[in-house]
Structure formats: structure tokens, C-alpha cells
Write a structure and sequence with these properties.
alpha/beta
């Protein structure tokens, strides 16, 4: 083996910048130094391939009720002790069954299931960066739209190379607290906020999710800080989804998020000026309803990811006041 092949390689995908020795992987478990070359062991090997409703991502202001081909690979560059999907995000790739799906197979698979959209989701698609990028390129070339469901922990250069192929994203902001990120996720908050800003600058449709963990990120102060940041940096009509936590992975000692916490968060978000605030993973009155930002008329009503009524015009205009709702509707 040549001297170069014996050297560790610095990964440049995310802010952790892992220095990876030969034969080992980075903290994400899937980016490996193989013979002096950094490779993603999950390339072309998704562990989850499904057709979901768009609302399950969740995306509520992007082609409501459209079916979306959803693919995910093993691995994540965060270490969230409250992970709701740890069986694949925190697994080693050799321990999880995977499927053969090269990027070139995406368009035909989407067509077979009558999907005009493809989501990179379930775990963290950014650690399988090359696969996500190549799939997005193949999908775009076939006239499909690409959706990224991510925690947003990525460096600026690879993100900017990917965004021209991404039409919409839901970014999971874990908490508006750097100590939370450090203690719970083994990460930092600032790179995630920068990711959201970069997406905004690129013209990507953005929605935000915040999983509310009892006693850890559900204080009024943290909720208000998050909402004020969203309003000030990506706009008051940005959809914000407060999602209910359930005991999982290494955080089974905490109870599910109380419904009262979720409704309080929605109230505080509206006080901070946000117009489209949703509650996920819980049965709450109008928790998934889209209201007009101007006249407050009910525009889209949903129930468990199913759109029951949609009063918007095909261009996303409220039939009562003529205001166009922020989003991509047709």
C-alpha cells in the first residue's frame, strides 16, 4: 500500500470534519476511508424505499397530497439521544438490510408509482452526499422535483453544490440552544441556522420542524427565540411544525410531549408573528390546518397526513380575500 493510502482523510461534508484513518468511518458510520479514497458505503443502497403523502415529510405548503417517492440510507452525523428513528439512523450499514437502487433507477421507479417528486429522508441524506446529489441530478433531468428532509448539518460548499437540484426542504431545528445541540446531539446550532439561511438565499421552499422534548427544549424562552429567528430570517409565512416527542432510543425516561405544551408553543409562535404553525404527531384541533395569513380563513384542512379539503386556487390564492399563500401549490 502506498504511503498516501495509509494516511487519514479529512471529510469535508459536515462541520465535524472527521479525520478518518484507513479502513474506518467517520462519526456518521458510513463515510469510509477505503484505500485512501473517501467513499459512502451506502451509495446506491437505501434501507428504506416507500411512497408517502407529501404531508408526511412534513411539507404542508408544497404540492398538497401529492405522492412522493421517499428513499433513505443508514447513517447520521448527529448523535441525538432522543432520536425517533434510531434503528436506522444510528445503525451500522452492515447491520441493516438494503436495496439496490442506483441513481439512474430513480426516474423509472418514480414513474412506476406515479410520483412527480422524490424525497431524501428518514435518516440524514446529507451524509450519503454523493448518492443524494446524483439521485437529485437524475430526478431533475427526468423532470421530477427533489425534496430534502434534513437536520441541516452540512458545510457551505457541498450545500451550495446540492441546492440547485433541490426544490423544497424541511429542516429539523432541534432547539434554539447551543447547549442542547452539544449535550443531546453532539453538534452545534450555528451551522444549522446557516444552512437555513443559505437555502433561503437559493430560493428553496423551506419548512421547519421542531421536535419538542419535555424539560429540554420546550421553555417559553426557547420557543420564542426560535420563532423570532424564523420570522426575522426566513419570513413570518414560513411553515413551522411543532412535533410531539415519544420516548425512544436513549431518552425513554421522559414522557411524551404533553398536548398542552404543543398548543402553548403554537400560541407563542403566533404571538411572535408566524402565520402558519402546525402540530404534528398529535391529535389537536386544527393542528394541521392551513389558515390564510391575511383573513384567517380555513384554506386546507388535514387529518393524519390526509388532505380533507383544499380551498386554494391552483395558484395558491385564498378564495375569500385574494391573498396568495406562501408555498408551491401547483
Amino acid at each position: 500500500m502506498s504511503p498516501a493510502k495509509k494516511q487519514p482523510i479529512r471529510c469535508s461534508i459536515c462541520p465535524k470534519r472527521c479525520l478518518i484513518p484507513p479502513g474506518f468511518s467517520g462519526e456518521c458510520r458510513i463515510r469510509m476511508n477505503i484505500g485512501g479514497v473517501l467513499r459512502a458505503s451506502t451509495y446506491g443502497r437505501p434501507c428504506a424505499v416507500h411512497v408517502d403523502p407529501m404531508e408526511k415529510k412534513p411539507l404542508f405548503h408544497f404540492f398538497p397530497s401529492a405522492p412522493i417517492l421517499s428513499i433513505g440510507t443508514v447513517g447520521c452525523n448527529l448523535r441525538c439521544t432522543n432520536c425517533q428513528n434510531a434503528d436506522i439512523s444510528q445503525a451500522n450499514p452492515e447491520d441493516v438490510q438494503a436495496y439496490d437502487l442506483p441513481p439512474s433507477g430513480i426516474p423509472a421507479l418514480a414513474a412506476r408509482h406515479t410520483c412527480s417528486h422524490v424525497a431524501y429522508t428518514y435518516t440524514e441524506p446529507l451524509v450519503s452526499y454523493e448518492y443524494t446529489l446524483d439521485c437529485a441530478h437524475a430526478a431533475r433531468a427526468a423532470g421530477l422535483r427533489n425534496v430534502l428532509i434534513t437536520a441541516g448539518y452540512i458545510n457551505a460548499t457541498p450545500l451550495r453544490q446540492l441546492l440547485p437540484f433541490i426544490d423544497a426542504a424541511n429542516v429539523d431545528i432541534k432547539a434554539f440552544s447551543d447547549p442542547f445541540y452539544r449535550d443531546v446531539c453532539n453538534a452545534r446550532l450555528a451551522p444549522v441556522l446557516q444552512t437555513v439561511k443559505t437555502m433561503k438565499e437559493a430560493g428553496t421552499h423551506i419548512e421547519i420542524t421542531n421536535l419538542m422534548v419535555p424539560t429540554l427544549n420546550d421553555s417559553d424562552d426557547l420557543i420564542r427565540q426560535l420563532c423570532a429567528w424564523v420570522a426575522g430570517n426566513i419570513g413570518t409565512e414560513t411553515p413551522l411544525h411543532f412535533s410531539r416527542f415519544f420516548p425512544k432510543f436513549k431518552m425513554t425516561h421522559l414522557p411524551p410531549t404533553p398536548i398542552e405544551t404543543l398548543t402553548r408553543a403554537r400560541h407563542l409562535a403566533r404571538e411572535e408573528g408566524l402565520k402558519h404553525v402546525y402540530i404534528g404527531n398529535a391529535e389537536v384541533a386544527d393542528g394541521e390546518t392551513t389558515f390564510c395569513a391575511t383573513c384567517t380563513a380555513r384554506l386546507v384542512t388535514r387529518e393524519r397526513y390526509v388532505v380533507r379539503t383544499n380551498r386554494l386556487t391552483t395558484t395558491g390564492v385564498c378564495p375569500d380575500c385574494g391573498k396568495r399563500a406562501q408555498g408551491v401549490w401547483s
